[in-house]
Specification:
Layout (H helix, E strand, L loop, with lengths): L4 H10 L2 H25 L4 H24 E4 L2 E4 L10 H33 L1 H6 L3 E4 L3 E2 L7 H15 L6 E2 L2 H4 L9 H8 L3 E10 L2 E10 L4 E11 L3 H15 L18 H14 L4 H17 L4 H16 L4 H21 L4 H13 L3 H14 L4 H13 L3 H14 L4 H13 L3 H14 L6 H11 L2 H9 L4 H15 L2 H15 L4 H11 L2 H14 L2 H6 L13 H10 L6
Helix pairs in contact: 2-3, 2-4, 6-9, 6-10, 10-11, 11-12, 12-13, 12-14, 13-14, 14-15, 14-16, 15-16, 16-17, 17-18, 18-19, 19-20, 20-21, 20-22, 21-22, 22-23, 22-24, 24-25
């Protein structure tokens, strides 16, 4: 039996199917190159590019079927089975197709050259791609109800968080970007202040169950608009809109997204729960006790509507952890901390890779002296979100607790680049410098934090810096201004001893004991270590150890006032008993 394959291939060649395929593929590639450049420049929606690509793919088999089934004759287009083989001019059509192939190949080479040497060098997209940095300004609330400001802020922050997960993109943190809220400043000036080349801004109009989000991407170097679009959707589509905006920004900056790069915690089925979460966050950032109580009510309402909402459980854990720090007794602190742990564990059971929950979990583990577990949580968080300033800052705190100050400083420097106007980041940076003994640099950085936020509560450590520098009169003046009495008395005891006034130092110490009782153990350990009385210092450290003082856990490894104890075997023993991982 004769093999039919050669005959079939010959027939494909006779009917010019191969030539048509080559012409179609080359022409399709040229079309997509032009579309990829021109459509964004014409501000056409993202989906139009996808549509052209889909039509070209669908058209390919149609073209091949058409080439197989029909032949161009001197009398016009006819079905192939209606053409006498002796009258076929397929060979003539083939020669014309050969010429056409050469022509489209020439065009393709020209387009490739344009793409390489002209478009990539001159279009705004390519210029921007050389500095892939962006700040997301708070979207303007255009709703009739001014109370919807929480929603526009929340949408802005969600988009910012999505963009921060793109490794190629440097995204300025929320604290710095939101410094420009309600400030009608020139975008170039904002770009200079934040150190970015691109700014995303927009507006949100919410009415009932419908939301309109308008967004535009601006190149601040020349004010050119790189992309803009308006989305009119139902409220339950808001997550899709946020994803679309993040993807469109990435495309405008010539960044190729992988499917798993831009990810979020599982969105809720109930949009009202999302509304409640955004409102709670709005109040939590205000910081007052009244706002915190209101946020508590909102978060619990959200969980009633959506019990499986990981982000709500995570935020509830943050709120409870903050309350535990302010608790009046260690017993109360531990009880609240236990509630915080329950909330975070529920968040992680729902979303095991939810970075914000892992971060607060690490801090809860530190407060419980579970240092090795905290280090693991911090490393895992950093691997999940290496481009988020808040994550970098939080991991730096955990690394500092372990005594790894150089690494903590490096992480904080990276966080500062992403969030240059965040006073917390500047404060932590100054703190690590102080603990490394770089006191002049620490002073400059403390002052920078105060320039950003004059009321920032860093006075205790600021005063300590003058003590460590030996600028005793200034240290005494600053310590005496402290409004937290326990911290003031600690500082006075330290400075008076250094000045040689033991009577005043002992008086401050006695007042501290009278004020705080057993809770003063950690402070008393610092006083006696600074005086060089190692036996008393270790006595009080053992008392603080018995209380599992959370502040002792945070500062033990890096507290400069305890530096004189490090060569004592009792120090190594205490490090081991506290549970710090090997190498801390």
């Amino acid at each position: 039996m004769t093999d039919p394959t050669p005959g079939f291939l010959s027939e494909l060649q006779r009917r010019n199917v191969f030539r048509v395929a080559i012409v179609y593929v080359i022409t399709g590639w040229v079309v997509m190159q032009i579309v990829d450049v021109m459509f964004p420049a014409l501000n056409l929606p993202e989906w139009t590019i996808t549509l052209v690509a889909a039509l070209l793919i669908i058209g390919f088999p149609v073209a091949l079927i058409f080439a197989w089934a029909f032949e161009l004759t001197a009398e016009g287009l006819k079905r192939d089975d209606q053409v006498d083989r002796t009258e076929s001019i397929g060979h003539v059509t083939g020669r014309k197709l050969n010429v056409l192939i050469i022509g489209v190949l020439s065009v393709a080479v020209g387009v490739l050259a344009l793409n390489q040497f002209v478009w990539d060098a001159e279009t705004p997209d390519a210029i921007v791609s050389q500095d892939k940095s962006i700040a997301v300004l708070p979207f303007v609330n255009m709703s009739e109800d001014s109370d919807n400001e929480y929603f526009s802020d929340g949408v802005s922050e969600e988009i910012l968080n999505l963009l921060a997960q793109i490794p190629e993109l440097r995204v300025i943190g929320r604290t710095s970007s939101f410094q420009f809220k309600d400030r009608n400043e020139d975008l170039r000036g904002i770009g200079d202040a934040l150190g970015v080349s691109n700014i995303l801004e927009g507006s949100v109009r919410k009415s009932g169950g419908v939301v309109r989000v308008t967004a535009q991407l601006i190149d601040v170097t020349d004010g050119a608009q790189l992309w803009s679009e308006t989305f009119d959707r139902r409220l339950d589509d808001i997550f899709a809109v946020q994803d679309e905006i993040a993807a469109a920004v990435a495309r405008a900056l010539r960044i190729t997204l992988l499917d798993d790069v831009v990810a979020r915690a599982e969105p809720p089925d109930n949009t009202e729960a999302y509304n409640l979460l955004l409102t709670a966050r709005f109040h939590l950032r205000r910081g007052s006790a009244r706002d915190e109580d209101f946020a508590w009510d909102l978060l619990t309402q959200a969980l009633e509507l959506e019990p499986g909402y990981a982000a709500v459980w995570s935020d509830l854990g943050v709120l409870l952890r903050n309350r535990s720090i302010r608790a009046s007794t260690p017993e109360d602190s531990q009880a609240i901390l236990s509630q915080a742990r329950d909330a975070v564990e529920k968040a992680l059971a729902l979303e095991p890779d939810f970075a914000p929950a892992l971060t607060v979990n690490a801090h809860i583990q530190v407060a419980n002296w579970e240092f090795a577990a905290a280090a693991d949580s911090a490393r895992r968080t950093l691997a999940l979100a290496p481009g988020e300033s808040r994550i970098l800052g939080n991991v730096a705190v955990i690394v500092n607790v372990m005594g790894q100050l150089e690494e903590a400083l490096e992480l904080t420097n990276r966080a500062r680049q992403l969030d240059p106007l965040n006073p917390v980041t500047r404060f932590n940076q100054a703190l690590w410098l102080q603990r490394l003994g770089r006191l002049d640099e620490a002073e400059d950085t403390f002052n920078q934090a105060l320039e950003i936020s004059p009321d920032f509560p860093l006075k205790t450590h600021y005063s300590k810096n003058f003590l460590l520098q030996g600028r005793l009169e200034l240290a005494l003046s600053e310590y005496d201004k402290l409004t937290v009495e326990g911290e003031r008395l600690l500082g006075l005891a330290l400075v008076h001893h250094t000045m040689g006034d033991e009577l005043s130092s002992r008086a401050a110490e006695d007042n501290l004991v009278q004020l705080e009782g057993d809770q003063a153990a950690w402070k008393l350990a610092q006083i006696h270590a600074w005086r060089g009385d190692k036996d008393q210092a270790f006595h009080w450290l053992e008392q603080a150890y018995g209380l599992r003082d959370p502040i002792m856990g945070l500062r033990f490894m890096t507290e400069p006032l305890l530096a004189g104890l490090h060569d004592d075997p009792r120090w190594t023993d205490l490090v081991s008993r506290m549970g710090f991982p090997e190498g801390a």
